[in-house]
Design goal:
The protein is α/β, with parallel strands linked by helices. The protein is about 50% helix and about 15% strand. The protein has a domain of about 140 residues: Isoleucyl-tRNA Synthetase, Domain 1. The strands form four sheets. The protein has a six-stranded parallel β-sheet, with helices on both faces. A four-stranded antiparallel β-sheet has the order 5-4-6-8. Helix 2 crosses helix 3 and helix 12 packs antiparallel against helix 15. It is elongated and about 85 Å long.
Amino acid sequence: MTKFSATTPIYYVNAKPHLGHAYTTIVADAVSRWHRLLGEEVHLLTGTDEHGLKIQQAADAAGVSPKEFADSIAPLFAQAWDRLNITHDDFIRTTEPRHAAGVKKLLQACFDAGDIEVDMYRGQYCVACEAYFIEEELIEGMCPIHKKETTFVEEENYFFRLSRFEDRLLKWYEDHPNAITPSFRMNEVLGFIKGGLNDFSVSRKTLTWGIPLPWDPSHVAYVWFDALANYITAVGYGTDDKAFAENWPVDYHFIGKDIIRFHCVYWPAMLMSAGIEPPKGWAVGGWLLVDGEKMAKTAGNVVNPLDLIDVVGVDGFRYYVLAETTYGNDGDFSDEGLIKRFNSDLANNLGNLAARVATVVEKKCGGIGPASSANSPLAAIAATAVAETSQAWASVQPSKALEATWKLIGATNSYLEDNEPWKMEPGDAVNTVMGDALEALRIVTILANPALPTTTQEIWNRIGLTGNITDLRIHADTKWGQYTGGTTVVKGQPLFPRLTV
């Protein structure tokens, strides 16, 4: 069986989950769901990042130990992903023993390779993103990401000699030209590498909340060797060699553009040093901005995804996140945009189609769904929708995938409007039209399932079909002509009641 594996970033537990976290996680989940529909063996990893200075400071402020603080926040991420219907197969916390074992093994491997050496660090440091910056990278003396003043730091650190990996990284990307999607992000990564690579700190001596270096316990591992290593420690590195060999490298790291340098430059170099194959690919998303600004606790513009679920439901929220923004580009979140998308695509199109079909079948077909016809004009449109939807999901473009699926919804609504089955007398003609509409709706429920897992299953049941959509397979079960009819069709309550702004 073909395997597909994906990861989200592990999220820092200095604050509760926000819309930015949910965005990347929902995209990774939907893509993973699509690959399950292809019949592949899927593994989706997510988790929490729980070490470092920010956690130490937050714990001190709360009057608890760092572990107690992390224990109070990490479950909030797990609970949020459950509410958002995320189908992750593993949830790793960097405070787990399996993680510490793998981090120490990775550090030791790079140290033994001669790529980690002790030195003095002098320069600007941003606590908020736990990164060092050279003066040229600062904007008016402030961190370019968080727009906050950096701190001058001088201390003994161990450094990873990233500067030695420029040629190796360029050669690897030359050999793997499709490793980063969207493709324009590859140019950004190559620009980082060609611009000259600086060695980076892998330890802190002034911090105790972390994993001690195996050869020098007076230092603890600094963020990137700790956080990035979760991708391999979760699949057995350091604890289960057989599992690691079977499950690495991963197909996609789903990340936001703000951590592209660490994931696409630091991480593969670290793995090369340790003699480990880099991941197969990275899917790099933009930011969901609020009033043109990146969401951040420090900016005071954080949007709680669970609040939005109360407005549009889980599937409504998932759909907005996936459909509104082309993956890779920045999007701008607004309540008005959320409700407009909900009313337009879900209430007026999909919800209206499902309700209209059930109503006409009840009135003109005795509530029993007729079989589809072989020569329907919708058949070719459905085949195109399947092909275009498949290609878009394969390219990690959820918005384009949903756009392709919605073309079939639009065509089916137009087909009903052109034929006006509600004006027909019961008989063969109305049966043909409604059988075709039901078959189109059957295919739509499969194609849209990764985005709308609960609603599509509900539609599937309402049109008289049994079993779970997740057990179906894209290539076999989206071929035209499989709605055989003869089963009861029910209307039920409105799937997406229209909302007012």
